[in-house]
Amino acid sequence: MTPTPEPTPTLRQLLAFYLEAGVDCALAEEPLDRLLDADVPAPRAETPPAAPARPAASPMPLLRGEVAPAPEAAIASAREAARTAPTLEALRELLDKFDGCALKHTATRLVFADGNPQARVMFVGEAPGRDEDLEGLPFVGRSGKLLDRMIAAIGLDRSKAYIANVIPWRPPGNRTPTPQETQICLPFIQRQIELVNPDVLVTLGNPSTQALLQTREGIMRSRGRWFDYDTGSRVIRALPTFHPAYLLRSPSYKRMSWQDLCAIAKALAASAA
Ligand code: URA
């Protein structure tokens, strides 16, 4: 029997497929088939650079004819915007309007936070994945389910904890956020931590730990060790631990993760006393 041919995808479907696969920026005006190495003609001298208005090192795609701001300008405007937000609600609205991070244009929606803003403990992950992008809430997929079980083990749930990410938009195809994207989003999560003002801050995994606690150490060395996190108005105790997605891949580290959870419970009890 002859197989029925697949229907040809529309341009919109093709673009959606590329985005999902993490292809989020055009490098040249015309496609190059790099598998045909020998046959690839040398780029034509008259071919103009792909995006002359964009700094060469910028990973940000230009969308809807916009000129992406230079990362430095975007970082400065993120700092200025975040600094002025008096409340979490205002911060969420500012982020919704903020155009300095290209991830916003490829994500379905902003993933700001979940849980109780009055909570005494705040967990911060790296960036939303597919499930979070669809629901608009952090940690609702598989690793979120494990995070719920981890916090339940020390008597907490989302009504007693606050949960957010360093990056509030899903990177296409779950690719690793670029250092520029992290730097642009950093002032917003820093202001969010300052406004929530928890007694204990828990960084989940390496990217969140390195971005927030300004350490270059890997999570194997930093986990389980207390850091001081200075919000500008107060010094908060901060503890890095494994990201639940890592624990799903490497369950043998759950034993150490349990030790970290016990340390968090102890610190919360001590600060309540
Ligand atoms: N991983 C994260 O770091 N954050 C989420 O919200 C989901 C998965």
Could you explain how this protein is built, in words?
The protein is 40% helix and 10% strand. The protein is α/β, with parallel strands linked by helices and 273 residues long. A hairpin with a 4-residue loop joins strand 5 (227-230) and strand 6 (235-241). It has helices at 11-20, 71-84, 88-97, 103-106, 130-135, 142-152, 179-196, 206-213, 219-222, 244-249, 254-272, and strands at residues 114-115, 121-125, 162-165, 200-204, 227-230, 235-241. Helix 2 (71-84) packs parallel to helix 7. Uracil is lined by residues 125-129, 132, 138-139, 141, 143-144, 165, 245.
> Which term fits the overall shape?
globular
Oligomer: single chain
SS field, number of helical segments: 11
Widest sheet, order of strands: 1-3-2-4-6-5
User: Largest sheet at a glance?
Assistant: 6 strands, mixed
Could you tell me the strand content as a percent range? 5-15%
CATH architecture annotation name: 3-Layer(aba) Sandwich
Task: Please tally the β strands and state the result.
Answer: 6
Based on secondary structure, the structural category is: alpha/beta
Unique bound compounds:
uracil
CATH third-tier fold name? Uracil-DNA Glycosylase, subunit E
Q: CATH homologous superfamily?
A: Uracil-DNA glycosylase-like domain
Tally the structural domains: 1
Radius of gyration: 21 Å
Q: Helicity, in percent? A: 40-55%
What is the CATH level 1 assignment? Alpha Beta
Low-pLDDT residue spans:
38-66
